Amino acid sequence: MNAGRGAKGRSGGFSLLELLLVMVLIAATGVLAAGVLGGGFARMELRDNVRNIATQLRFTRARALATGMPQTFAIDPRGHAWQGADGRSGELPESLGIHFTGAREVMPAEGVGAIVFFGDGASTGGRVQLSRGTAAFDIDVAWLTGEVTVHRAEAGR
Prior knowledge:
Structural class: alpha+beta
Strand content: 25-35%
Shape: elongated
């Protein structure tokens, strides 16, 4: 009889299954804590979509610089959809408020906003505001440089 073994012949320690179960529980708790401490899942969704639109605007500007040809980023607030350079497009959740401010001369259709980036990096400029409840972010595009910046804002302004 082995002195270091229990009655069933099992050594001390944890099985792989037990360790995996504990890791899954820790990960699930971490995700829930991040949602609660970060302002909730709704705000996480808002921030994710703000980052996505800002990235697509920057990509459209980069394509204009690379090709030397004007590139257009269009957003349809009523349809919750956007379209960028190289045929990129996407949808935004219905739960988000979308407000566009920009040059009327480049609007591709009634109610659809657009920002045109030129081959030298300049743009027609504009602002896309995404909001949910009282939280909002402005995504600004400078007309002179085409620089895309993101700022916290008040919803509806």
